[in-house]
Automatic annotation (TrEMBL):
This is PTS beta-glucoside transporter subunit EIIBCA. Its main location: membrane. The lineage of its organism: Bacteria, Bacillati, Bacillota, Bacilli, Lactobacillales. The chain crosses the membrane at residues 111-143, 155-177, 184-205, 217-235, 247-269, 281-304, 364-384, 396-418, 430-454. The keyword Transmembrane applies. It comes from Liquorilactobacillus hordei. The keyword Kinase applies. It is a multi-pass membrane protein. Residues 4-86 form the PTS EIIB type-1 domain. GO terms for biological process: phosphoenolpyruvate-dependent sugar phosphotransferase system; trehalose transport.
Amino acid sequence: MDYKKLASDIVNNVGGIDNIQVVNHCMTRLRFKLKDVSKADKDSLENLEGVLGVIYAGEQYMVILGQHLLPTYEAIVKDLGVNGGEVIDENLDDLSESKEKLTWKTAGNKFIGYISASVAPLIPGLVAGGMLKVVLLLIITFVDTKYATSSSYMLLSAIADAPFYFMPIIVAYGAAIKLGGTPVYAMIAAAALLHGNYVGLVTAGHPIDLFGVNVPLLSYGTSLLPALLLAFVAYHLERFFNKIVPGIFRSVFVGMGTILVSGILGYIILGPLGNMLGKGIANFFMFFNGSVGALAVGTLAACLPWMVMAGMHTALAPFMAQLLTNPGYDTILRPAFILHNMAEGGSSFGVAARIKNKQLRSEYISIAIGCIVAGVTEPAIYGVNLKYKKPMYGVMAGGFVGGVIASILGAKVYIMGYSNILALPIFKETIFAIIIAIIAAIVTSFIVTFILGIEQKGESKVTKPVQKVYSNDAIVAVSDGTMIDLEKVNDETFASKMLGEGIALKLENDFICSPANGTLTTLFPTGHAFGVLTEDGTELLVHIGIDTVNLKGEGFDVLVKQGDKVRAGEPIVRVDRSKIEKKGYDLTTMLIVTNDNGKSIHLSNLGQVQNGAILN
């Protein structure tokens, strides 16, 4: 596969380099933070070879690539120069930036985006620490029980526990990055809750106060919500101090004021409030599990494929750690995550058993194994099960059956770990319960998928509006619509033929195509106009709409690059006619002969035309 071309096509279809603030990646997907999401062309992206799916969630535009991820990401960052994972500098003094209107929907998206981005740096650490705990557990269980009393074990346990104990600091970092504040201020405020002085006072158990205000004696190791609150407050405090402190003193007093006020609020208000909310969430999950019973895990596992597609599953991950702290085990979240992954694998096996294409069968078996062994499900969700639609019922059935069985048999997670088959030791004495549930999930999803079958359709491809071959002297209509005389255009520059002779078109299609065989010599970044030098030396200009340059590219999707060889009828720009016309713009499109190269060229007004109709 040509990864440079794939990278270029992806960047073009998310709105171009100028529309990308930053691009990151996880194990299977590119994660773009775009300036204007409306510029991204989801349909064209999904039809690119190598792209398994596209989703927008948590303020991230995600392109699912599976095994093609890393080389494509490297090509985007190294060859195209896109900002790869670096923090976007934001001026905390600049309050002029327009804000998205706050609605229930946007508020929900922002909340999920804030939680997801805040915990993103934490999750790998929790999993790494959890798996180290598993290794240590296996050693003292099966190798040497006395090892648990050794200094080596104590030190290694400290390494494994560090991501959990210092969770507030890591979460504060992620939250500050998401908000655009200075990370170290939020981290310091969170670290104060773990400082030896405070921990010592809590351990002593005597009442304490700060400036005469009572300070609750609480432990904040492994806590999540206090850090989220602290980072939020620290960000707004930093903005406040940047506004009121004179520029010459900011380097001294902004930071000091931010950590002082946020730290005090952390002891007195934010820490206790976050602790209370955390316990409330843990109690909710326990109540949900206790009231609904065995249906709780099954229902969550059945819903997870849709939550993954919406990006909502990441918001649940932090609360796994919350449950491991209080009440000390997780009977619902991690079991559901694992069983969903197993069901995705089982359903992919079912698709592989039904499909006739041997190459695809081999690929789907590999994807199924990846779900079960590695816990990577995006290729299965977007590339297999959602692709054929009916297998998603198999995934849901497998997750539900496995979840019900896991709950009935009492499967419990005691240590943070991956959601795959290798993490079974995190269930400790309930390991056999989860093994039985896993087998049930895989078998159920396989059987349901195999019985329901698959909706097998031909591969969807982006087709060219015109496939006809034209002579090099032919000039054709650039889209479908009604031709009108240039003099009738509501723009004096074109109507007076100041730029040259030509014709105009009232658009009835979203694709604007090349008027001739030649080279794309000019292509405005906004997409509203382009020029073609034909093979016989004629220069042609296509101008889409009147005054559309003012849109600054909004509603225009450029499909090619300046300097490309193009043929008559080949798509150059795709326009969102509805969006542009709603903004009050006239989309009459002009085709102008700016240089006839000494030839006599007359373009006919043919009335109603289709793209590719010969005009000369």
